[in-house]
Design brief:
single chain; globular; disordered N terminus
Length: 253
Amino acid sequence: MLNIKKITFLITSVVCLIGFTSCTETDETTADNSVSQTVSIGENGVTDIITPSEDSEEYNLGSYRISENGIKLYYDDAYIPTELMLTLEKYFISFQNNDFESYKTALVDDYIERYNKYLIENYSTEDEEYNLKDSFELRCKYIRDYMIQEILGTYEIPEDDTHTGDFSITRIKAEQTALFEGETLEELTEKFFQDSNDNFKMDYYNYIREQSDSLKYFTFYIIAEGEDGKEHKIISETDIIFAEKNGKYYTFG
C-alpha cells in the first residue's frame, strides 16, 4: 500500500510539481513525448540523458530520459536504478490502462496472495466477494477522479460531469526521500509495513526483508495528460517501497 508522506494527492491545476519549477500545460506535450523523432532507446530501455536547451520551456524541469513508452523519466540512476524506474512506470501504466494482469506483475507474489485473502475475508459481503481486482479497480477510479478534479480545478465533481478522467502519463520523477530531523530510512521502511503487519498478523516487514536482496524506499511524482490535452499533477510527493530480488523489482499494494 502506498505510504503517503507530507502532501500526497494535492488537487489543484495551478500548482507545479515539487522540484519541477514550472508548469508545462502546453499543446506540445504529445509531440515532445514521441520517441520516434531524434532519440534512440538503449538496451536498458531508456534513452541517454537529455538536457533541455536553456530557451526550452522544459529547461527548469531538469534532465530526463525517455522510455519506450514515450514517458519522460526524471531520476538519478546512482540512487534509482533504471530497472526500478521502469518497474515504477509499468506499475502506474497498469492504472492508466486498467490492466489488472500487468498490475500484478509489479507486485510481490507473496503480497498478492496474502492481501487478496485479507480483502476477501474482511471486505466481502454475503452477496458479493471483494478481492484484489476490486481493490485495483477502485484505485483506478480514484486516480481518474484526481484527474477530473485537476481539470475542473475543484474537489467537487458535479453529478452531470462528463469527463472520464482517462489520462496518459507523460512524466515520472523519483528521488531520495527527504528526511525530517531524527528520521531514518530504516524507520520509515519499517513503518511502511505496519498496516501489512496488522492485516496479515505477522512481522511482514522482517519477512520481506529476509526474502529480498534489498528494499528501496523513495519518493515519486506523476504528471499525466488529461482529456483537455494539458498536463496535470495526479500524484505528488508520495513514498513507495520496492523489493529487489535477482535484479528485478516488485512493490506492495
